[in-house]
Design goal:
single chain, five-stranded antiparallel β-sheet, 7 strands, globular, PGBDSf, 392 residues, SLT_2, Lysozyme, 5% strand, Lytic murein transglycosylase, two-stranded antiparallel sheet, signal
Length: 392
Amino acid sequence: MRSLSLALTLSALLATPALADVSCGGNFAGFVQKMKAEALAKGHSKAAADRFFAAARHDPSVIKADRAQGFFQKSFVDFSRAVISQNRMQNGAANAAKYKSVFDRIERDYGVSRGVLLAFWALETDYGQVQGNFNTLNALMTLSHDCRRPELFQPQVFAALTLYEHGDFDPATTQGAWAGEIGMVQMLPKDILENGVDGDGDGHVRLKTSAPDALMSGAKMLRHLGWRANEPWLQEITVPADLDWSKTGLNHKMTVSQWAKLGVKPRSGSLGPSSLKASVLLPMGRNGPAFLAYPNFEVYFEWNKSFVYVTTAAYFATRLEGAPVFNAGNPEAGLSGAQMKQLQQKLVNMGYDVGGVDGILGEKTREAVQSVQQKLGLPADAWPTPALLAKL
């Protein structure tokens, strides 16, 4: 989720933070010694710890990347058009054919559709071509030493040590993303320990060089995160012009049959099971694209926290399985980053939790916008416009 222009992703956010094992900051060499001592306390051998930590270095470029990482301010339409290229579609079809037997196993064992993994594989690393060139140990140690989120990264260091002891991690040569993710679908060491699968039967889990290992491991992780086997995740729909827009959004759910009674129709194919709960998702308001988001869509947010990225990845998965290009509609103009910050600050002043004044239209900001639209008597489609900003 970090290669190419997708530096927005910090899939380290998947983990539930605990307290840091070792105090952060201070002299880095001293910090390495404290981490080594903690490794021994956790039961790792002194010889393995000595070898593992011998090459650890502080990497200022990791801190620079961490501080500079930003969530995309592009709209869903612009972002998806930028990252879903014809080349990625063609390579997706080629890889689907090349690894058909692997995807067949994944769908049988984990119930995760092949388009879902193909889309992640494409957006994460361009099907393995761009996996990141940061030394993984240095990245994890640097972020563990930094006092911003040490509780998130220190467990990943010890997980990497365990992988090293298993012969699946080289502290000197293993490279990946700046936040420590490794391989074709960018997984953290702890996730690899918990969900790694030897897909090619060679006795090792090698996510950098083995597509079967990477794909099977990604599927297992999705199941671990709550993926519901053999259920849909996202589907483009058409909605009636008189729909009650206040019922839309991920915080509002009804059964598929209830949505159908309100006039929601599939743009292609048929809707999911009638008893399945779903939300009507309008990424750019009532005049833009419209989707029905099923329970599996929420699992995407366990993999990535960006609303635009998640919606794009889920839509891309449907495209790879034959869905048509979305109908972009004619949405109203949105806000610039600076205008979004102004709006968010106004919402905060009104008592709303927008998840931070960051210029990003995330889910909390969308919910606050929808609430304000209702109070002002505007169509409550959660899409902020210059007109709404002016009213506030």
